[in-house]
Amino acid sequence: MKFIDKLLNMSRKNRSLLCIGLDPDPELMPGVDVVQFNRAIIEATSDLACAYKPNLAFYEALGSAGLAILEETIKHIPGDVPVIADAKRGDIGNTAKAYARALFSVFGFDAATVSPYLGYDSIEPFVSYQDKGVFILCRTSNRGAVDFQDLHTNGLPLYETVAHKAREWNIHDNIGLVVGATCPEELKRVRSICPEMCLLIPGVGAQGGDLASAVSYGVDARGERAIFNVSRQILYASRGKDFARVARTVADRIRRQINSHLASHPEQK
Amino acid sequence: MKFIDKLLNMSRKNRSLLCIGLDPDPELMPGVDVVQFNRAIIEATSDLACAYKPNLAFYEALGSAGLAILEETIKHIPGDVPVIADAKRGDIGNTAKAYARALFSVFGFDAATVSPYLGYDSIEPFVSYQDKGVFILCRTSNRGAVDFQDLHTNGLPLYETVAHKAREWNIHDNIGLVVGATCPEELKRVRSICPEMCLLIPGVGAQGGDLASAVSYGVDARGERAIFNVSRQILYASRGKDFARVARTVADRIRRQINSHLASHPEQK
Lengths: 269, 269
Hints:
Two copies of one chain form a homodimer.
Chain A: H1 3-13, E1 18-21, H2 34-45, E2 51-53, H3 56-60, H4 64-76, E3 84-89, H5 93-106, E4 111-114, H6 120-127, E5 133-139, H7 145-148, E6 152-153, E7 156-157, H8 158-169, E8 175-179, H9 184-193, E9 198-201, H10 211-218, E10 226-230, H11 232-235, H12 243-263
Parallel strand pairs in A: 1-2, 1-10, 3-4, 4-5, 5-8, 8-9, 9-10
Antiparallel strand pairs in A: 6-7
Helix pairs in contact in A: 2-4, 2-12, 5-6, 9-10, 10-12
């Protein structure tokens, strides 16, 4: 099954555009190990999310044991919920092949984020896994995004050039884009360039992006193909033993908030 | 000790600007495991190299066991030889901090490669480890480099803008740039923008970059601060049991070739 179909199935089943970022920080966990923590979060939220997104940095920060924890975590995610590797990889062809194999074949992710800086031959090895999703960084949610992504290239900001290229490269209908909720105008521009592409939208929650405008500008004409990621705001909503229950409450609240903004989306009226 | 001093020490001791890329491909190894292979390569070449550079993709492709192999490999490298993590990481601040901790504190690398696409706050967490080296991707050695790196931004190609920014950000004197040997004119431009910066130059060897022009354009005025990386051409020079011995022969030949091109460098005459 193609990534986009797996995503749409789960999104419709759970009535959710919420992706939960599984970014473990042992210092914020209430006396459980990381696998127990992740497993409890997954069990408490898997009927509320459209996808999970572990960011590899937080596993690598635990050394090789961290990658074993990541393998274990993925096993606890129900098979019909898509899992996105937030890896932001980007390397020359031969090496990109090894990264794609690592993420898709070895760890078994359904999708991965990649960086565009090295151009098409760094992305092609990922895209050639036609059933997997590939989210290319376009306009990111951080302050430093302006340093290069907003520079004008041939009259367009670099991030828009990336969006145009992504559309051109999307021959297998498995490419998406990463656009931060912290930059709603840029999100609107990218959605207008790629009306049918799946967008991965981080930056609501701890990063402070406005959810209403992110939903309004981020979804496609049917109110779909947008994934709103929240990590810390859900995972660490409580630092006590009730962390999983509180995470569920917060996740459900955000899911409903997204849906309420969707309800006012032009096509849904 | 700062990375650049550790590098210059080893480079002068071994009279070498050759970095050996430890990129394991089990299919090309003659019936030894990856740790044995890497260890044999290191033992056969550590008096010929100025640094080693494992690319993390090839370890991640072996799953969590691969990261354990990486940890083991690093232990076998003599403490005075710098080890560069070719990771090309780039993520938002909070996540970049986790990557920097992973590479510098957990795995213990002396330097790392990072991607510039997310801007300064994605690089700052690496740079704040003042004794570690941070190589920012500038003009890469692959064909796809032209897709974005060569686009003009404010009259300059993006890669030159990255070089100018890197110079501006280099307050701790620990930033370097990655420029491919496959694009000698671009290498020359970058060296003229950053005359005193350390350049990591892949692309000679299997990728076909011309060594003479890479040396001529890549080194600083003293014939230093350039690292020429070769991986496959050395590691897999022989696929037989004699792989380490043959790797040594090839590594020494390339080291001497670099030095002979150095001898014709203007400042050395």
